[in-house]
């Protein structure tokens, strides 16, 4: 199991909830995406710069497991782990309600690199994964 390498705190906003008063299922993907983007930006990785160079870092597969619902006004933390499987960069992400750290959601995001539209490995991202996991 990969270690947590980044966490980001949020607070549920009213408009993110459905008629049942719980966070709409689609919003978990937004929370996770924002966490991934913030994580990469803190390490100097810019999606716009990569895109300008012809490299697109995209989600290829998503798995989500809903464990416990979040409600309006609740605070939570989104945690992220990252490892590599061949050409895939796998983000394992979890959302815990605060302050009790009740597990609310678990996500796995398989991402890949497209170099000018072609699936490829990216030496910079390969090295980054090793570095954030303390293996370099």
Automatic annotation (TrEMBL):
Keyword Hydrolase: yes
GO MF annotation list: fatty acyl-CoA hydrolase activity
Record's keyword terms, sorted: Hydrolase
Family of this protein: Belongs to the 4-hydroxybenzoyl-CoA thioesterase family.
Protein name per its UniProtKB record: Acyl-CoA thioesterase
């Amino acid at each position: 199991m990969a270690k947590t390498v980044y966490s980001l705190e949020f607070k549920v906003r009213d408009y993110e909830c459905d008629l049942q008063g719980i966070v709409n299922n689609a919003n978990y993907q937004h929370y996770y995406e924002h966490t991934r983007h913030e994580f990469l930006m803190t390490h100097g990785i810019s999606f716009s710069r990569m895109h300008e160079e012809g490299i697109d870092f995209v989600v290829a597969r998503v798995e989500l497991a809903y464990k416990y619902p979040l409600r309006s006004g609740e605070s939570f933390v989104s945690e992220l782990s990252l490892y590599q499987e061949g050409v895939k960069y796998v983000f394992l992400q979890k959302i815990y309600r605060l302050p009790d750290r009740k597990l609310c959601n678990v996500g796995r995001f398989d991402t890949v690199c497209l170099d000018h539209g072609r699936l490829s490995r990216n030496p910079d991202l390969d090295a980054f994964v090793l570095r954030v996991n303390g293996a370099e």
